[in-house]
Design goal:
This protein is α/β, with parallel strands linked by helices and 252 residues long. It contains 7 helices and 11 strands. The strands form 2 sheets. It has an 8-stranded mixed beta sheet, sandwiched between helices. A 3-stranded antiparallel beta sheet has the order 5-9-8, covered by helices on one side. Strand 10, helix 7 and strand 11 form a beta-alpha-beta unit. The longest helix is centred in the N-terminal third of the chain and has 18 residues. The chain is globular. The protein starts with a strand and ends in a 7-residue tail after the last strand. The structure holds 2-amino-2-deoxy-6-O-phosphono-alpha-D-glucopyranose.
């Protein structure tokens, strides 16, 4: 495998030549964490970036090299107005790409319900469920082109815990593919774990691929910590690892 490893501003960075190599390494990292603690609590993102990681984990599970039977998982975020059966649901996405293939009991896979009547109650319920499950042992993350993590959009202030958020136009455009390419059908709001929730994880692995992520990756690693670039707060976490395909690393 061709990869390089270095540390910048206390953030450990691994750069891979291809997305396939990145996926293999990230999947192995998850498997190692599972071996160390079979009842680990995982935090999981949807999106294009983790698809290869989930496919590799499904393969490793089928080969008997990964045992998810005692693990618990929490989805990172969800659109408002969308239930778990909706084709654009992040809960459904993670279930179809990972959970259904690795034997993680479905009752231990948790997601936010974007169709809940009272969204504040839903956010509070989710935050309490995370606490009750114990600390998230390993949180996987993608990053938005604007530096968001989960659906924590650039803002003057970031609510630390699970909350309701208004999506920025660029994020709705980036999500249009989930709605048959029709940006007008993308919900205007979402529910997301807060940056504070994410930072309570014991270890965080951020995945990024493609040059469209290079600028936000550079600011995440080198820029000041600012709510205008939510991923920059990962600099304050002592066990964050950044896995980059080389396009996403092209400005470092
Ligand atoms: C989405 C999600 C994030 C995801 C990010 C990157 O909008 N809210 O959880 O990590 O943007 O997505 P992708 O991996 O498809 O580039």
């Amino acid at each position: 495998m061709s990869s390089s490893r270095f540390t910048s501003e206390d953030v450990e960075i691994r750069v891979f030549t291809t997305s396939e190599e990145l996926a293999r390494a990230a999947a192995q990292r998850v498997v190692d964490a599972l071996r160390e603690r079979p009842d680990i609590v995982l935090g999981l993102p949807a999106g294009r970036t983790p698809v290869g990681v989930y496919a590799d984990l499904a393969r490793l599970s089928a080969a008997g090299q990964a045992d998810f039977s005692r693990a618990t998982a929490f989805a990172l975020d969800e659109f408002v107005g969308i239930d778990h059966a909706h084709p654009a649901s992040f809960h459904r996405f993670i279930r179809e790409h990972l959970i259904d293939h690795v034997g993680l009991p479905i009752e231990r896979f948790h997601g936010l319900d974007g169709s809940a009547d009272d969204l504040q109650v839903e956010c509070d319920r989710y935050e309490a469920a995370i606490q009750q499950a114990g600390r998230i042992g390993l949180q996987l993350l993608g990053i938005g082109g604007n530096g968001h993590i989960g659906f924590n959009e650039p803002a003057n202030e970031l609510p630390p815990r699970t909350h309701r958020v208004t999506l920025l136009d660029e994020t709705r455009k980036a999500s249009a593919a989930l709605f048959n390419g029709d940006v007008d059908r993308v919900p205007r709001e979402a529910l997301t774990m807060g940056v504070g929730t994410i930072l309570t994880a014991e270890a965080v692995i951020l995945l990024a691929a493609g040059e469209s992520k290079a600028a936000s990756v550079e600011r995440m690693v080198r820029g000041p910590m600012t709510p205008q670039l939510p991923a920059s707060f990962l600099q304050s976490h002592r066990a964050v690892e950044v896995y980059l395909e080389r396009g996403a690393a092209s400005r470092l």
